[in-house]
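Action item from last week, closing it out:
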Amino acid sequence: MRLINRHPGRVSATLLGLLPFLLIMLIYSLASQERLADNPNDKLLPGLEQMTAAVDRMAFQEDRRSGNYLMWEDTAASLKRLGMGVGIAASLALVVGLLNGILPLIRANLAPLVSALSMVPPLAILPILFIVFGLGELSKVMLIVIGTAPVMMRDVAQRVRELPGEQLIKIQTLGANSWQVITRMALPQTLPRLIDSVRLSLGPAWLFLIAAEAIASTEGLGYRIFLVRRYLAMDVILPYVIWITILAIVIDQLLRLANRKLFPWYNAGGH
């Protein structure tokens, strides 16, 4: 049998998926042990024991100065900003993308602007956001919105334009007006595609969040990482990075699950 026709079973696929992670952990463990054997106070590659102690200190012991559990406080602050930013961006993407995709006059008017905005490097306008909106929460949320919304708008508009033309002809033949075409035909088919677009935008959204928190914040996962880097506290940084990755994976899988539950007809088509 040719290699391109060989498909792994469920167990084999799981083991193959875990293999790269196990290799990375093995390589890190060996490198860490070697450095710690030469210098027990080495901070660059902390061992599992050091990272476990740091997580216990950050997540399960009250901070002496604030009395809070820092890791949970940072997580709540970051998730709140991320949720607001992605939520606003997704709402804008749905409205603008849907109209851009279905109405030629709107597309002629807004599509060039949306395309231009999607090309602006969001981090380049971060200083402008701080000047306009201040150093509070609004500037961080707006960075996520500006960084992700235009791309999602273009993606949603493209998905709408890819809807079968026969459907558009049939619904107009049955007497539907423009509003009914949008709400009865385009909107229901756009929502699952919007969720897919949000999933793809989560990576950039986390990037913009961490960047904004690193520059101007007093709490948050990005703030904590850049705060402790001054002390070369890799035993805190690495668990925080792993925690951010876990959060991103959980959010992505929750969106995938919601998409499957809410729109089974869409996922039955192999999307």
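Closing note: The radius of gyration is 23 Å.
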